[in-house]
Structure formats: structure tokens, C-alpha cells
Amino acid sequence: MSPWEGDRPTTEGDRTMTAATDTGLTPIPEPPGLPLIGHTLDFLGSEGFIAQLSALARGAGPIFRVRPMGQEFVCVTGPDLVAELSDDTRFRKHVHEDLRFLRGLAGDGLFTAFGHEPNWRKAHDILLPAFSLGAMRDYHATMLDVARELVGKWDRLAGSPVDVTEDMTRLTFDTIGRCGFDYDFGSFGRDDQHPFVDAMSRALAHAQKRSGYLPGTEPLHMGARAAFDRDVAYMGEVVDTVIRERRASGDTSTHDLLGRMLHTTDPVTGQTLDDLNIRHQVITFLIAGHETTSGALSFALHYLTQHPAVLARAQAEVDALWGDTDSPDPSYGDVGKLRYVRQVLNEGLRLWPTAPAYVVEPLADNVIGGRHAVAAGTPLLVFTPLLHRDAAWGDNVELFDPERFSPEREQDRPVHAYKPFGSGERACIGRQFALHEATLVLGLLIHRFRLIDHAGYRLRVKETLTVKPDGFTLTPVRRSSADRRSVQANASPLSAPVAEAAPPRGAATVLRAPGTALTVLYGSNLGTCAALARHLAEEGSGHGFTTTAAPLDEAVAALSPDSGPVLITAASYNGRPTDDAARFLDWLATLGPDDLTGVPYAVLGVGDRNWAATYQHVPTRIDELMHAAGATRMLDRAAADTSGDYAGTVDTWTAHAWAHLLGEYANPTEATTEPAPAQGTGTSGEPLYSLVPVASTVTGGLTEQHGLSPMTVLESRDLVDTGHPLARPKRFLRVALPEGLTYRTGDHLAVLPRNPDRLVNRALARFGLDPEQTVELRPRRRSRSVLPVDRPLTVCRLLTEFVELQAPATREQIRLLAEHTPCPPEQRPLAALAESVENEEVPSAHSVLDLLEAHPACALPFERYLEFLPVLRPRHYSISSSAAAAPGEADLMVALLEQPHRATGGTFRGVASEYLHRVGAGDTLLARVLPCAEAFRPPADPAVPVIMISAGTGLAPFRGFIADRVHEGTGGPALCYFGCDHEDVDYLHREELEAAERAGAVQLRPVFSQAPQNGDRYVQDRITREGEEVWDLLERGARVYVCGDGRAMAPGVRAALHGLHTRFTGSDSAGAHAWLEDLREQGRYVEDVWAG
């Protein structure tokens, strides 16, 4: 947006009215500016108008004066003041500089016309009936036809990413074309956007950039102005073609906008609109009729992917209305019944009104707020993003909460606190058209599809004269009948519908009374706790509860006795909350002793015992704070160790949780006597799976479960001299990201591996199976660990692509192996091994396959063996490339995990690293981008000093950091310490890094463990030796990043930094530890490490 300028020159009267007078009026406040240029500097840069004006407004109050680039306007954000400005008897629309410039495109169309122009009133009166209830009913069928084209496209692409913003643009552009002008632009039959959309986007972008030109610099942008004029001419030609074809058709009906403009006379003047004005109106409707609606839909879909509880409730509403059918036929009246879907759209427009400001002016000299004088013609900008975040909206105004638009809460809120469509007679004439279209489309999409955030998208806003998400993609996945069956909407924002489930087996099935909630909350960065929470919610539905799974941050200020019992599973990131749990922890810390009285809860912590200093820190803190706030602990907190018997701990805790919940909340009148299944493995009953030979070979849904996309390998090569005796294999891979998928420097690529033939053949041989035998898996009961296989496939493919063959055997599995071993000499060692694993509380060094091969008398059926095997999971690798330099490609540095097998004496190889060492250029990987923790991002201010420390392939993210600095220009000092084996063997990316050093982007500090220089064998040695330089940067605010081996390297680095603190401050060991912890809390010391 731009400086805002009046319709007439400033007069002496204006200047008089803008100052306080002797009547006791108060001058309008103004944030500090600079002489002559005022606030010009606040509007320079790339942040965008919304961020710039929001920053300026921070602390300025509900009204303040802004003076950018020699112009002046008054910004208003308070509901009481906006209520005054909504009085059409005192204020009218102000056609500001940006709109005046757009008159070159839209002339005296409804949006850009001055209020005194005759064509504005004439067109308004002619067109207003085109948005009546009767007209809206007529448009509905056409809207539905276009919506079905969108649904059809997503159906064809189901399981693959779609560009949401582009597809919403196609949808809304075709809808206004066909409803308004009976003209089909055929956007869904094209690979690219219609040229009109491209021309319009360029024109609006030019108008946006032009608003930021410094006064007097327009001649420097003549090329851009010429391109704008060409785009305007092209759009005019397209519209003239539409008008010409209608006239040639002989159609004189007035059933749409174009018909009314051509053949309806103004009741006052008796005239029709002239052809030039009709062109301006058509262009106006083509722009305004699709640009803002596409943005509103895109924002709504984004927030639904981030708020699964809201999505579940919205889906419950559409499922209740349209039932179990893939292709419903909604009536016009149906759309009005989608009240919660409309609330979702309204809340998206609250947070991101797609037209983020409108401007009015006083008709005469006036006073607003009872104390501020404003002269006639003064531009008064209503800034809706801040109006929509006023205190009238309650607490947590940044939180997406559609319940703000419940009838009860709307009644309690000032009516002028919400202005996404402008105000008064110049408000958006097509508001109901846009909302009906958006509600219909959003309802159809969520009824047909699950929405998968496959890229971990973080909202970026693109601003022209409107706003929309930038680069937003998602993966639509078809919903099944089971997803929709018997789903009931629940009034709580943390509640989801009841899902029907197969009845349990082995004990009485006890069902809850309808409407009782069970909330499952999670804190998860990498997806483990999120997946576990979803499984718990599914199991809860099977027990009759109304369940939902949601991030912890969605529960801020939302827990009460009405929430029902609450299950929480959470992880930590270096002792800190995960990105979706930080606000929840902060909120818990503010609660009083009785604030959560009556809330029953249980906590399952997930972590890795290798990181003893921070192990289970966040789950422990959650448990303590909730208990201190008066919540009732249903179970003692459990700690699941991902490097130990994770599955066993989860199974045990889950069994205890359901036993408590069903015992506490049982409704005897709803009990059945059908047998219930054991959760996890058991010694009795039928196996989980039955195998049925079939003819075809189609894979199942593992890719869908993990949100993966196919990616092509562009390059694969060795990073080390493999002929050298010191060489340890390391591989470089470059993959092409799917169109529309992006990442940020420092992010991870999660890659789904495949089991090597050597492992698969061992399993096939142990069970005597034909690898080409095609089978179909049919789970006999619901289980958290069911493999995502719903179609026939070969046994070989099943073992290669779906299961973990090297997972350590749990104590329960070893017991079951012993029970299936009739031979006493073989049975006794298995029983003893199970006992030792249980006593030592460490995972077995054996996989189930290792034990089966070592005990040939064990008669475990293959079906039961499958039940033992976890679902194959993606492995995470730091992306080693720069998103700025190569946004469409991701590089990896992969070290082959190869070491002596602890149990068998052979060689153990990591499944994922072995797989990635086998793939070559042209092969396809299944992968997804995962965001790294925000704390691990490079500083926003490039001048901040950076110290990067790594060993081996831990260099990966820092290669990306350095490439960013080369690409964008160097910033502050940057030291990169990295450990290698030998200078001639594994100095990774040496030529590239040394070129970056010559460019001034980094100072390289390599260390060679097998050929030490200056006595430095490890990175911590060189850090200690160069302590003065390192300490100087730390004193100057440097941020320290550590990546790589967490067993030896990271502790060594911490010890070295402790030593520097003691050396330069004279502190003791406790003081040094406290100092480093303080750096960690400030985000100035960050680790991304793993067990070596």
C-alpha cells in the first residue's frame, strides 16, 4: 500500500483542523519520525505494508497520524472510532493515490470511482439487484459446476501436492466469469493461469511497487509503466471480446451482471451504462470478484491444515449434512446450514482480511472520538488487521479460533470490530456472492478430502493491493466412508466427532455416553508424538469417546472440566518445548492453584535417554504445572525412551490409560459383551493379521501416512576418497523438489528408506516364503500399529517397503518368541534374555529376525511376526543446500552407518544410509521437507556473529548457511569449526567452502583427527586454542550452532566453552554451566545433534 493523498489540495482550513485549538481538542498522536521525510523510512524495505504499518502502530494507540514520502494520512484501528467512521452521513470513501492510479485500469468502475461521478451511482443502482437473494439462488448451480471442476482436479491429483493459491484463483476467476458474464475462461483446462490473471497480477504488483517509489523517481521506472500499460491494454481487449460476443449472440436477458449492464436502464436517468463504463465494471468484477475470494479460501485452507480439531469439527458438520457420499449435490439452502464452515472463513478473514485497509474522508470538518479534529477530505485509513486484533476480540488474538464467530460471542462484540469487506454504501457489493461461493467450495473440499500439510508450510503473505498466502501447497487425500460415518459435530473447539470403530475383543466393550469429550494433546516437532496422539484419538473413538487430537498450543485457556479427560504426549527439543507447545507451557506457568480443578489428565513423555541433561524435561514440567494448577493426575507420568523399549512403554501406558478411563467413565447401560482386543501383542487369541492370496499387486498407503512426495535424484556421488585406508563412506545427493514445494535453509528432508535385499531375503528364507506371492492384509481389529496396507501386494514388497526389519526386539516380543518355542534348550535362553532385558531396562541388541534365525525351533507364525514389526518410518537428514541460492533443489550429505553388530558379531548397517548410498541419478525418493526448530535458523540480522561447530556430515546445515551468505552478500563474522578424519580423505566440499572463504562469507577452521595440526585433534581442541577469538565473538553477541555427534563431540564442545568462561571471567564450574544454560535460554547456543 502507499501514502494516502486527498482528492483535493490541502487548504489552510485543513491545517487549522489538524492542530489542537483553544476548544480543548487533542492533537492526533504521531509516532516519532524524522524531519522533512516523516515516516518514509518506516515504509521502505521488503516486509510489506501490513508488517510496516503494524510495526509503526505498535504502542501508538487506536488513532495516529502517519507522514510517509511527503503525504499524510490518519490510521484508525479502534472499534469505537471505526464505528464513527462508518456513519455515511459524516464520511465517504476516499479514493486514495493507489486507487487513482488503478483508474488507468478500471476507470470509473464501482471500486475506483469517485463518489461524485454519475456512473458510480448509476452502476450501483443497476447492479445491486444482481446480488439479491433470488440472483444468488440462480448463481448457485454455476458455482457448484465450477467447484466440481476443482474437486475433480484434486481428485485426479490426490496424494500429490497441489498449489492451493493458484487453484483457488482458477476457481474464483472461472466462477465470476461464468456467473457474471456467462463466459468460460476454461482455467481448469489449462496447465498455466489464464493470461488475463497473469496480466492482472503484474498490474496489481506494479501498483503496489509504485506506491513505494520515492517522490520524483517515476521517470526512473518508465519500463515498468510501459509494461503496466501493455497489461491494461490486453485486459481491455479480453473484456471487449466478452462484451462483443454477448452482443453478437442476440441475448438480451438480464440474468447476469453483463446482461444487466447491457440492457437494464437506470431508474433515475433512464439510461443504460455506456460501453466504456461496462468495460470498467467487467474488469472491476473480474479482479475484485476473484482476487479476494481466492485469498480468503487459501487462508482458510491453510489454517485448517494447522488446526486438526477445527478441521474435524468442520468435517463433522458437512458429513452430517451430506452423509457418506463422495459427490454430494448441495442445494442453495445447504450452504446456509454450514454455520461452522462459515465461522472458519470468517476467522481466516479476521486474521488476514484480504483487502487489509479502506480509506474514508470527512464530508465536512469534523471531530472524532470526542477530541480529535479532522478536516474535510482528510484521508482516514481503517487498518483492518489491527482492528481485527483489538482487545474486543478477547485474549490470544493471534490464535485461530472460529468460536469467536459463534452467535453468543458475536453478540458480545462491537459490531464495527469486524470489517473485512469495507463499510457503508461503498462496501463490497459482492460480499454475499463471495461468502456463498467460499462456503460452498470449502465445504465440498473438506467433505471429499483430508488436507495434508506435506511441506510443513509456514505462512508467508504475498501483498499486492490484496493479500494471500505465498507458496502454499497441500496434499489432498481422499476420505473414506469410515471417515464420514456417524460423525457428530461437538460444540467445543477442542472436540472432534465420534468415529465408528470395530468393537474390541476379549473383554466387555464399554461405551461413553454421547457427547462426552476425550482430548488428546501433543507437542511434536518431528511427528512422533503427533502420530501417537492421532492413534490414541482413534482408539478412544473405538471405545465410544468423542475424541480429538490437537497440538498443545491449541489448548491454551481452553481446558476445563467440560473438556473431559485429557491425554498428553509430548517431546522436548534440547530441553525446550516443541514449536507447537511453547505457548501452552507459558500459559500453564501463569495459572493459580485451582485454575484446572476438575480436569483429569495423564502425561506420556517421549524422549531419548542419551540426552540425560534434558531427557523428559518438558513432559515432566507439564505434569508438574498441571498438578500444581489443581488438575487431577489419572496416572503417573510415563517416559517412553526412543532409544530403548519405546513400543513396550507406550503399550503399557496405553493399556493402563484405557483401563482407568473405561473404569472411571463406564456407562453400564452402553456396555456390550463383545470381546475386546488386546492393545499390542498378547499370548492368546488370533494373530492381528490374516493373509489371503490374491492376483494383483498394488501398494498400500504408507506414503499418504507420512505425507511424502516423490522426488527425483539429480546427482549422487562419493564425497570422500573411497580408495584411502582411512575413508569412511559419505555420499552426496541432490534431489529435485516437486513443483510448489519449498524449504528454508536449515530444514530437514525426511526420506523413507527401503530395506535392502539382504535383510528381506533373510526374512523370506526364515519363513520359507515365495517373494512373488501376492497377499492382502486384513486387520482383525483396530491397533495403533496396523500397517498402512489396504491393497494386495507381494510379500517381497511388503517386507521391503513397509516394515522395520532391524528394530530391537522388545521384552514382550522375546517372551512371546519363547512361548512359541517348544524345544526347551532353545526356549530357556529366550526366556532368560527377556528377563535380562526387563531387569536392565535397555533395548535388546537383537532384532526379532536375529532371534528367529538363532532359534530355528521357534514356531512363530509369519502373521504374528508381521504384528511385531513397526511401520517403516522416514529418517531425517539436514538439508545441506541454500534455499536462497537453489530453492527448487535439496542437497544431502549422508554418512554410511556401518559398525560391528552388538549381538551377532557381524556387520550392522543403517537401513536409510545404506539405501541412500545405493540410489543413483534418475531414481525416485519418497520424502518430505520438515522445518528445523526456529532456534536453529541463522540470525535475522546478518550482522550478528555466528560460530558453527560440527563433525562429519554435521557440516550439512552449515554448508547451507554459508551458501546463503555467499548468495545474499556477507554479513558479520562467521567461524566454521568442523571435524574431519584426514585432509586428503574427507574434507567435504573443500573447493566450494574455500571459495566462500575467499569471498569473505566465512572463516574455515577444519580439524583432522587422524592428522592433527597444532595439536588439534577434535573441534573442541581448536576452539580452546583459539579461545581469545571465540570469546571476543561471544562477548559481541555471537550465536553458536552445534550439529553432529551428540555422544562425544557435543559434550566436548560444551566443556570447551565452559573452559573459556572460566578462563576469561574467573568463574567456577557452576558459574560456567549457568552461563552456557543462559546462552541456551536466549537462543544463542543451539544444538541439533544425534547419538553417534
TrEMBL record:
EC number of the protein: 1.14.14.1, 1.6.2.4
This protein's GO CC annotations: cytosol
CDD domains tied to this protein: bifunctional_CYPOR (cd06206), CYP120A1 (cd11068)
Residues annotated to bind heme: C428
Top class in the EC scheme: oxidoreductase
Pfam families from the UniProt entry: FAD_binding_1 (PF00667), Flavodoxin_1 (PF00258), NAD_binding_1 (PF00175), p450 (PF00067)
Reaction catalyzed: 2 oxidized [cytochrome P450] + NADPH = 2 reduced [cytochrome P450] + NADP(+) + H(+); an organic molecule + reduced [NADPH--hemoprotein reductase] + O2 = an alcohol + oxidized [NADPH--hemoprotein reductase] + H2O + H(+)
Entry's Gene Ontology molecular function annotations: aromatase activity; flavin adenine dinucleotide binding; FMN binding; heme binding; iron ion binding; NADPH-hemoprotein reductase activity
Biased composition (Basic and acidic residues): 1-15
Keyword Lyase applies: no
Name of the protein: Bifunctional cytochrome P450/NADPH--P450 reductase
Organism: Nocardiopsis metallicus
